[in-house]
Amino acid sequence: MSAVQETGAPAPDPRPDLAAPAARQAPPRSRIVTGRVARTRGGGLSLRFQGRAAAVTAALLVALVVVMGVVLTTGDFELSIGEVVSAITGKDSGAADFIVNTLRMPRLLTAVCVGAALAVSGAILQSLTGNSLGTPDIIGFTNGSASGALLVIVVWHGSMTQIALGALAGGLATAAAVSLLLLGRGLQGFRLVVVGIGVSALLLALNSYLITRASWQEALEAQAWLVGSLGNRGWAHANAIGLAVLVLLPPALFLSRRLSMVEMGDGIATALGVNVARTRAALLVISVALAAFATAVTGPILFIALAAPQLARGLTRSSAPGLVSSAVMGALLLAVSDLAVQRLFAPALLPVGTATGTIGGLYLIWLLITESRKSRA
Questions:
Q1: I need a labelling partner for 364 at 20 to 30 A (CA). Which of 41, 101, 177, 353 fits?
Q2: CA 2 → CA 8, 13, 253, distances in Å?
Q3: What long-range pairs does 246-253 form, CB within 8 A, spacing at least 24?
Q4: Mean pLDDT of 5-30
Q5: Backbone φ and ψ of 48, nearest 5°
Q6: Average confidence score pLDDT of the chain
Q7: How far apart are CA 87 and CA 275, in angstroms?
Q8: Which residues pair with 47 in a beta bridge?
Q9: Nearby residues of 210 by Cβ (< 8 Å), 6 or more positions away
Q10: What are the strands, taking DSSP E only, across the chain?
């Protein structure tokens, strides 16, 4: 009787060197690592590169540079690329210098930095909550910043700098309130989103009350600020949000690897040596600060924090939260939206919040429909 008849399995191949080469050469699943890893000589620092993510980020950067070029060269006074370069390098002190360095460049840089800040803030919160709706817009941090600014406008009749500080204080106070409501239950999951939505509703009611108690002029000023606008933004605004991004983005990138581990679950992250509670708290502070600084500069610009991280993750097809790709996507979305309201609706001076609200509303409807279909499947 043959080996097959006796055991029910085929006999081993007498030529082991030719038997199942693919199965023999495949590494264990736990050792398969996507992308390339660059390490220092001592191995103390390593950085992983994913080919698709790097290519998508590079393409987004190219698109952003193109949009920036269109913004600087087109408008009521069209300029050539050479005139723009001369103005930026200080070789042109005439009309081109005023148009580029006083009118267009500060507004453009403000849009790029605000978009990047909101996108990174949204990417962090979506990862921490495990919910695509977990963004500063929906959880209430943006409305908290708006409440702080409105208090300064209506009650204390403050200056622009005081309004910005009030927005920052309001955002941080809202985050503290949400954290206290979740004390002992963890800053994660569906619970954070639900509590944040409730806090956001209360803050919206407060904002409406403050506007009704304001004078006619103050109400107009407050309502214009609440829409979210990049109009009349100068170098003071660009420098403020630029400095905030330069300070807050590096620690966010440093903690991004731990954020990826926290996404896998608290148990796995703890087993890998991550202090989950401290990591969540640090990332939450960074996220709130980025959203608060962005809101302080431009007012609440909605849906960039919601859409940019999702679009970036969809393009890169990465399971990890790509903060760099999200930042570039957010900058691109806000720059394109501002370009659209400036060029398509001229001479009307529409705030950029109208464009992001329209696009974001449509995206939110599509996202809800998609999630509903997934839950039914």
A1: 177
A2: 10, 14, 62
A3: 248/117, 248/286, 248/289, 248/290, 248/293, 249/116, 249/120, 249/323, 249/327, 251/282, 251/286, 252/120, 252/124, 252/283, 252/286, 252/290, 252/323, 253/323, 253/324
A4: 41
A5: -100, 135
A6: 82
A7: 50
A8: 38
A9: 147, 150, 151, 154, 155, 222
A10: 36-39, 46-49
Cα distance between residue 33 and residue 35, in whole Å: 7
pLDDT, one tens digit per residue, over 348-358 is 778 898 888 88
DSSP SS3 for 189? helix
CA distance 298 to 275: 35
Amino acid identity, residue 3? Answer: A
d(CA 170, CA 146): 7
List, as one string, the DSSP characters of 195-259.
Answer: HHHHHHHHHHHHHHHHHHHS-HHHHHHHHHHHH---TT--HHHHHHHHHHHHHHHHHHHHTHHHH
In one-letter notation, the amino acid at residue 273 is G
Dihedral, CA atoms, 297, 301, 306, 311, nearest 10 degrees?
Answer: -90
State pTM to two decimals: 0.83
Q: Identify the top-confidence range among 63-67, 211-215, 312-316, 347-351.
A: 63-67
- C-alpha 303/C-alpha 305 separation (Å) is 5
Task: Return the residue matching tokens 């107009």.
Answer: 220
Query: Nearest to residue 128, comparing CAs of 237, 280, 264, 318?
Result: 280
Instruction: Compute the distance between CA of residue 368 and CA of residue 376 in angstroms, rounded to an integer.
Output: 12
